[in-house]
Amino acid sequence: MGYPRKLTRRFQAFDNFAISFSIINVLSGIFSSLGFGLNAGGPRLLVFGWIGVSLMVLAVGAAMGEVASAYPTSGALYFAAGKLAKRHKGAWSWYTGWLNFVGQVGGTAATGYAAATFCQALLVLQWPSYVPTMQQTVLITVVIIVSQGVINTCSARIIAVLNRISVWWLLIGLVVIVGALAIIPDDHRSPSFATEFVNTTGFSSGLYGGMLGLLVGTWTFTGFDGSFHMSEETVRATVNAPKGITRAIVYSAIGGLMLILALVYSIGDYGKVAGSSAPPVQILIDGLGIKMAKLLLVIVIGAMLFCGLANLTSNTRQIFAFSRDGAMPGSHLWHSVSLRTRTPVKAAWLAVSCSLVLVIPAWWSHTAFTAIVSINVVGLFLAYAVPIFLRLRLGADFSPGPWNLGRWGIPVGVVAISWIVLSSVLFMLPQASPASIDTFNYAPIALLVVLAVATFWWLATARRRFKGPVSYGCPQEVAAMDVV
User: Fold this and answer.
1) Does the keyword Transmembrane helix apply (predicted)?
2) Could you check whether the bond before residue 434 is cis, i.e. omega within 30 degrees of 0?
């Protein structure tokens, strides 16, 4: 790919899969967004919407996997965009990289904040007199993200081990939670309950309310580009990276469906659950009792912590690669690698710092924090779309890697782009009515701000110095520069 090796190849196929599986993390995603789904479409959209979204996201993952096989680098999406573009390679690469960067930073902040929120819920269950505040939640978030930063300064081998533990934590946790909800509650809903439709979004259109319900699955299925970003640290990356992406989506789809069914059929008083501050926690309390709910909540919080750790690892590699091509302020700092751990330590702390900056507004306003991190999903999926679109535009001129879709590459890519466009529009439309300062969807504003800043920076200076991915020489010259 034209770069000297600085990162060690310590990730096996399972480790590469583990990074994306940990970031998708169905326990974290479903527990964070179930309340929204209960009001936007109800059981019907939670169950059947999940199945539909899983298939669409699998198309996105397969199309991305084909690109990953052809360009297995830490730069991932922005590198592929620069290589696949026929003209204006620098511009395509620039916007893809910044959308990816902002989306990942927002994901780290959002996951850390979600974990802190559920930590607060656990504290309330343990000590009912405890009164959580936004300031306490922010402080817990800071501790979580900084701790994840410390771990990301360790060797790649330690990070790989933790990601393996994350997979088993998540799988065993799913079995325990689903099993408990299936066996312990005295009553369960009838099978037909999965077809019930509920729309309490405030919008009179059931179709619109139901479409919004698709966001539960879309919010959960983010971050699977992590396998792509870990390519330079993965053995046989041209095959194992795309396999990691697609397997993570398939296994998450199956596990997530089991969890949704278990939660939905265990709902007692629907109004009580849907109106609670943490609907999944209320389901656990009503069906299993407080003691069991506290135990299972520990499992969920652990999954969220592993999710944030994997997300930060992926974010760090993207910063490392983007800086290697001179696309970030102080690039010479961020693409340096620790001689002791062979990891981009400075890039890890930049990722931590940027995530903490996004968390700060939550000290005063949860709405302000939501407005900032709302770019997470939109930014990531738009970054996913660019290299897939450019690959489609190349058509037969695209040179695939050993893992490819063959004649299905074009139709799968079209499905992937169509879904990204639809889901991105849904994320930017109003999600509650009547609109107020607390219910307004700030995602379009956040996206416009990011694009405006990127455009101003591009026109002011970047277009003259950034031409896309840099080649350090021919294969022999690059090999002579390897430091590992």
Assistant:
1) yes
2) yes
Asked whether 241 and 231 are in contact (CB, 8 A), the reply is yes
Residue 230 lies in a domain: yes
230 φ, ψ (degrees, to nearest 5): -90, 10
State the Cα–Cα distance between residues 81 and 97, nearest whole angstrom. Answer: 9
- 338 lies in some domain: yes
pLDDT at 228 over 60: yes
Rounded to whole angstroms, the maximal C-alpha distance in the chain is: 69
| Three-class SS state of 198 | strand
Expressed as residue numbers, the domain containing 436 is 13-467
pLDDT tens per residue across span 29-53 = 899 889 889 999 999 999 999 999 9
Structure tokens at 87: 């003209």
| Beta strands in 11-141, from DSSP E residues, in sequence order | 40-41
Q: Are 413 and 398 in contact (CB under 8 A)?
A: no
Contact 379, 447 (CB under 8 A): yes
Q: What is the CATH number of the domain that holds 148?
A: 1.20.1740.10
Residue 411 identity (one-letter amino acid): P
User: If you average pLDDT over every residue of the chain, what do you get?
Assistant: 87
Is residue 321, in this structure, part of any structural domain at all? yes
CA angle 28, 289, 299 (to 5 degrees): 25
Mind listing the pLDDT tens digit for each residue in 268-280?
A: 899 999 988 889 9
Judged by DSSP in three states, 11 sits in: strand
Residues in Cβ contact with 21 at an 8 Å cutoff, skipping those fewer than 6 apart = 166, 167, 170, 247, 248, 251, 252
Structure tokens at 319: 């910063």
Q: Is the pLDDT of residue 202 over 90?
A: no
Check if the beta carbon of residue 36 is closer than 8 Å to that of residue 263.
no
Rounded to whole angstroms, the Cα distance separating 257 from 92 reads 36
Centre a 10 Å sphere on the Cβ of residue 239 and count the other Cβ atoms it contains. 19
C-alpha to C-alpha distance for 86 and 161, rounded to whole angstroms: 40
Taking a C-beta distance cutoff of 8 angstroms, is the pair 240, 73 a contact?
no
CB neighbour list of residue 253: distance below 8 Å, 6 or more residues apart = 50, 51, 54, 57, 58
Domain count, the chain: 1
Residues linked to residue 234 through DSSP beta bridges, in sequence order: 11
Residues 366-416: tens digit of each pLDDT: 776 676 667 778 888 899 999 999 999 998 889 999 999 999 999 999 999
